[in-house]
Amino acid sequence: MASLVRTGLRLSVTVALAAVAAALAGCATAPSGGPPRPAPAGNDQVQAYVQPLPPPGPTNKWLPQNVVLGFLHASASYAFDPAAARQYLMPELRRTWHPGRGVTVIGDMPAATPLSYNPKQSLGGGPPVQQKWVHLTGPQVATLSQSGQYQYAPGPVSAEFLLEKNPNGVWLIEQLPQQSLKTLMLTESEFQEVYQPRNLFFFAPAPGSQTPSVLVPGPVYAPLQSSNSALNTDLATGLVNGLLKGQGGWLTGATISEFPAGTRLLKKVTITGKTAQVDLGGAAARASQQWMLMADQLAATLGDGTYAPPLATHVQLSINNRLEYSTGAPDLVPTVPSGPVDLITGTSSVGQLTEPVHGAKLQQKLDQHQIGSAAVTAVAASPSPDHLGQLAVAVRNADGCAVEEQPTGQGAYKTYRLSTSGGQCRSLSYDANGNLWAAAGSGVWVLPPGTESLPIAVDLSAMSGATQPGDRILAMQMAPDAVRVALLVSTSAGNRLLLAAAHVQGGSASFGESVTVGTTGLTDPQAISWYDAYHLAVLATGGIYEVPLTGGAGQQPAPQLISTAPSGVQTKTLATDGTELVVGTSQGQVQAKAVSSTGDWSIVTNGADPVYPG
């Protein structure tokens, strides 16, 4: 989309900023706009939002610091009213300022401090022009890429604006700080008012020459680009342009778009009732074999209601003004697998429960006659239909850890040594393609299906922006789409939740750039499991939370408490299929409860590390 950007400054905060400006200016204040509010909509229309009105612009009573704070507030309206922010700039800067490369999100109460005057000689020998520097400081919360990907990035903000008094006696911005030349600088809470969390959908790569059939959601924040669009056509148009531009961000290279390069949106998306009309041209006209897949991406994106109300339930795809395909939202996003629960039942043994309920019969699945006497530290079962029932375990040995697996899903177990110095294997996870992933210390390995070769060390160098030397991977879980991986990482600043895209090709494997998953409201996360395709279940202080994948601290929607943890015991591990919660405790118990239940946890059996397939 033109620039899927996140920005934010809650308008009550703007009033506070105006109060600060009033204190600085005496009787001069920087007016604030009105709050955003729902717009009326018919029964067959998506509720729209009305943007906050930007301040009316600087006057000759405003001090330089008022102008800088007013500019920040007006920038929240940039997506639908660029002139609101440009009125704070000198005429030449208005013509050259085009902030289309992302956003810097700062805290809600930045300080604007005037610095020394800097007179400039006027042209023609007139009196000197008055100039003044204003220093803006505050905490940086995050950055937003041009593709709409939010990255939690705490740190300080220090920016200097040069202002000049024009012939009418009005202070205007003559020079922007470097970080504001190509990006917007906006406060966090206003972002939450005028930008919506959405998903763009791309296909997971298909094995061999098969047609892609699995959609992967990529969270973005999209601007509500119109002040009075009752049908959200501007928002829908922006999302479609986002699909046409490609994945962007952390899913780049790991997913596929069926829109060929050079595809163009011929006109704004329209929505009638609950049907969106999308008219494409350019390269799309020469790719008729892909029209159905393009329509699937469009329908999934416009019909997604995970984080905000869906924009449409059906899509009509036209090519060069001719209707070619009509579809509803496709059911192509894989669900979290359910099935039997496997668990460690002894030093070198694994059992299985058909369902995690009190009194369920425990079936023995693995013992020391198959893997020897090494201690089992983690368990995984394959969710792939081609490897249904395949089991793998991590074991501790004298000089590190190893994985025990049946290479073909049957017969004798084979030992695959992973680490001699990275500590015990803390986490195993199968993906839907049959790859077995293992984490030990700060390293990750992958074992492709049906192989007798050594495990492949996963290249984690692309994650260096979010991790530091000495960080340890406590848990790792592959998503049902076999593309995304969730990681719980121990750092010097505490445990963090990260997302990355997994790449396996030939004899190499890597994780792409990682992004932080929101942790607002979470204290000390200890265990993770995929709750569904759009949320993680996270065990933290206070209980088990449903955590959206939309961004870092402070972002909406916020984590929601699913259940308190079992009382009287220390909970160590977590597994869920989205319906049942199953935990392992330090007392050697497995306890369970239904997600929908408000009752107590029940003790299912003795054991450790219960897992669902995946």
Question: Could you characterize what this model shows?
Answer:
This protein folds into 3 domains: 11-194, no CATH class; 196-328, no CATH class; 341-611, Neuraminidase (6 Propeller). The chain is built from 8 helices and 40 strands. Strands 3, 4, 5, 6, 7 and 8 form a 6-stranded mixed sheet that branches. A hairpin with a 5-residue loop joins strand 23 (425-430) and strand 24 (436-440). Mean pLDDT is 85; it is low at 1-50 and 227-231.
List the helices and strands and how they pair.
Blueprint: H1 11-25, E1 37-39, E2 48-50, H2 64-75, H3 82-86, H4 91-96, E3 103-106, E4 111-117, E5 131-144, E6 150-165, E7 171-175, E8 184-187, H5 188-194, E9 195-203, E10 215-223, H6 233-245, E11 263-265, E12 270-272, E13 275-282, H7 291-303, E14 314-319, E15 322-328, E16 341-346, E17 349-353, E18 362-366, H8 368-371, E19 375-381, E20 391-397, E21 400-405, E22 414-419, E23 425-430, E24 436-440, E25 443-447, E26 456-457, E27 472-478, E28 484-491, E29 494-505, E30 508-511, E31 515-516, E32 527-530, E33 535-540, E34 543-548, E35 560-563, E36 571-576, E37 580-585, E38 589-594, E39 602-606, E40 608-611
Parallel strand pairs: 3-8, 13-14
Antiparallel strand pairs: 1-2, 3-5, 4-5, 5-6, 6-7, 9-10, 11-13, 12-13, 14-15, 16-17, 16-40, 17-18, 19-20, 20-21, 21-22, 23-24, 24-25, 25-26, 27-28, 28-29, 29-30, 29-31, 32-33, 33-34, 34-35, 36-37, 37-38, 38-39
Short summary of the structure?
The protein has 614 residues and is mainly beta. Helices cover 12% and strands 39% of the residues.
